[in-house]
Structure of peptidylprolyl isomerase:
Amino acid sequence: MKNHDVKIVSLFFHFLQNMPTQFRFYWFFIYIFTFFTSTLFAQSYQLKFKTNYGNFDFILYDFTPNHRDLILHEIEKGTYRKAIFNRIVKDFVVQGGELDDAILAREADYPTEKPKRLAPEFHHRAYHKIGALGAGRDDNPEKGSFFSQLYFVVGQKVNAAELDKLEILKGIRYSQAQRTEYLVNGGQPRLDNDYTVFGEVIKGLDVLMKISTLSTEKTHSTKPVTFTIKVKKMLPKRKPKTRFSVGATVIG
């Protein structure tokens, strides 16, 4: 938090202390709501996911900059133009882009080269709630991401005991807001700190949930779900200073 932000917070809490008690909760709620919504929508990029079942919008997190810049790079290359959701698992994820088998088969053609993966970016604000955007990967020990595979969480509700167990197992600490999100709406917390989350759906979540319920054969939809990703909005004042650089962010 920058110095001017600290001053604003200090002034606000001084303001709270000097107002009648019955109004404090109301203004505190307004402050928290404004803080989190402004933080959410202040991210640099908003994108549109156009499918043959409807469209939805999502944002890319600026606090996972390498994954943000990677997907923008892949969009420019055409990777996500008329791509396919090739894995649909109800109450788990909807996944698209290149298949694991295709990626691994291509890498097998160059057995002397170590497969390249994008280094993980785990951030305490990024977690696997419903609508979260994540990067697919194989079982590499570094937990590096594939360059051309993504997924959205459609998850399920979890209980407090499960979250407590995961905190101990993974050495993480969920905020009260994150625990509430998981308990009330659901998600896939077991993926936290194992797969990188780098964005989330902000509009049209019902479209994604509808896709997740389509009939499938071995996780493949019986009717192909195609999609194209378009950059919908970019905030010019927050435009990243650098674009995706393979050498600086890749493991392998």
In short: The chain has two domains: 3-36, 45-234. Residues 3-36 form one domain. Helices lie at 3-17, 21-41, 65-77, 100-108, 160-170, 176-184, 205-212, 246-249. The radius of gyration is 20 Å.
